Amino acid sequence: MYIDILGFTVCAVIIFFAGKKLSFYGDLLAELTGMGKAWIGFILMSTVTSLPELMVGISSVSIVGSADLAVGNIVGSCAFNLGILSLMDVFTPRNKPLFSQVSQSHILAASFGIILIVLVGLGLYLDDIIISPSMGLISLSFGVIYLLSVRSIYNYQKINPAEKVAEAIEQSPEVTLRSVGLKYAAFALVIIATASVLPHFAEGIAIHTGLGESFVGTLFLAVSTSLPEIAISMIAIRTGSADMAVGNLLGSNIFNVFILFFGDIFYTKGLLLKDASDANLISVFAVIIMTAVAIIGFIAPGRSKKIFLAWDTLAILLLYIANMILLYKLS
User: Fold this and answer.
1) β-bridge mates for residue 136, sequence order
2) Cα–Cα distance for residue pair 64/88, rounded to 1 Å
3) pLDDT digit string (tens) for 183-234?
4) Residue 165: what pLDDT?
5) Exposed, middle or buried, 147 (CB in 10 Å: 0-12/13-18/19+)?
6) Looking at the 3D structure of the chain, how many domains does it have?
7) Higher-confidence residue: 179 or 158?
8) Which single residue of 137, 196, 311, 321 could bond 59 by disulfide (Cβ 3.0 to 4.6 Å)?
9) Per the domain annotation, does 321 fall within a domain?
C-alpha cells in the first residue's frame, strides 16, 4: 500500500509542476499565434489543464478496466474545479469578492456545464439507447453538445468582446513560436505519461484501504488531475485575471464531461456510465447545485466578505464538503 501512496504522490507532484509550465507556455502560444486571447485562452487553457483527466480517463478504462475510476475522476474533477473557486476567493480583497470581479459571460459556460452533467446523471440512472457495443446515445451527445458549446461561446465572445484584463505572463522578446511550441509539447508529454499510470496507484489505494473506487476516483484522482487548474488559477488571481481563471475552470468542466465520450469508446466491457456505481450520482447532484450557486453569484455577487469567503463561494465549499462526506459513508 505504501508503494501505491508514494507512487500516487510522486505522480501528483509531477502533474502539478508540469501543468503549471504547460499553462504558461500554452498562454504564450495563444499570444504568439495571434488568434485572439479571449477565444484561444478560454478553449486552449481549459483543454490543456484537462489533459490529466483525459489520460486518466482513457487509462482507467483501457488499462485498469474500471468504469468507476473513470466516471468518479470526471465528476469529482468537476466538483473540485468548482471548489477551487472558493480557494481563489480566499486570496481576493475583502471588499472585492471573486464573483464581483468577473463578467456575466461565464453564465453561458456554466449553463452548458449543467446540461452536460445532468446527462451524466441520466446515463448513470437510466438504460441508455445503444448505438454500438461500446457507445450509447448519451455518450454520443457529450461530443455533440461540447462542440455546440464551443461554437456558442465563440459566437458570444465575437458579439460581446471582453475587456482586456491583466496578463498572467509577460512575453519576452526572445520567445519564438517554435521554442514555445516545443516546450509546450514536451510538458504535455510529461503530463500524458504521468497521468497514464495514476489509475494503477489509485486502484491499489482503493483495494488496500477498502474505500471503494468511486470515493478514490472522486477524491484522490480528481484532486491530482485538477492540480494544473489550481496552478493556473493561483497565477491568475495574483495577476488580477479573475475572469481568465473562472473561465478556465468552467471550460475545464465542459471538456471533462466530453472526456466521457472518449472513455466510452475505449471501454469495451459495455456502456461506461451504466457500469459505473450509482454512488457517482451524489457528485453529479453536487456539481449541479454548485454550478447553479455560481450562476447566482455571477448575477448577484456579494459586495463584501463577512469572513474569508463571500456567501456564494462559502456555499460552494460547504456543498463540496457535504459531497465528500456522503460519498465516504456510501463507500
Assistant:
1) 130
2) 34
3) 888 888 888 788 777 767 766 776 666 665 556 555 666 677 777 777 777 7
4) 40
5) exposed
6) 1
7) 179
8) 196
9) yes
For 2, residues 6+ apart whose C-beta sits below 8 A from its C-beta are: none
Q: For residues 312 and 254, what is the distance between their CA atoms, to the nearest angstrom?
A: 21
Give residue 52's domain range: 2-161+173-330
Q: CATH code at 272? A: 1.20.1420.30
Could you give the CA distance from residue 88 to residue 83 in angstroms, rounded to a whole number? 9
Q: What is the pLDDT of residues 79-120, one digit of tens each?
A: 989 999 998 988 888 888 888 888 777 899 999 999 999 999
- What number is the average pLDDT over the span 308-313? 89
Kindly provide the residue ranges of all beta strands, DSSP E only, lying in the chain, ordered along the sequence. Answer: 130-132, 135-136
Residue 219 CA, distance from chain mean position = 13
**130 pairs with which residues across the strands?**
136
AA letter at 246? V
Tell whether 168 is covered by a domain: no
In a domain, 166, yes or no: no
Cell reading at 28? 504564450
The C-alpha atoms of residue 224 and residue 52 are separated, in whole angstroms, by: 8
Higher pLDDT, 159 or 206: 159
- The rounded distance, in Å, linking the Cα atoms of 99 and 72 is 28
Q: CB–CB of 41/27 below 8 Å?
A: yes
Q: For 264, what's the count of Cα atoms within 13 Å in the CB-facing half-sphere?
A: 29
Residues 228 and 53 sit within 8 Å (Cβ to Cβ): no
Q: Give the Cα-Cα-Cα angle 277, 282, 284 (nearest 5 degrees).
A: 95
Alpha carbons 121 and 114: distance in angstroms, whole number: 11
Q: Cell 449543467 appears where?
A: 114
Number of H helices, E strands in the chain: 14, 2
Cα gap 95→233, rounded to integer Å: 20
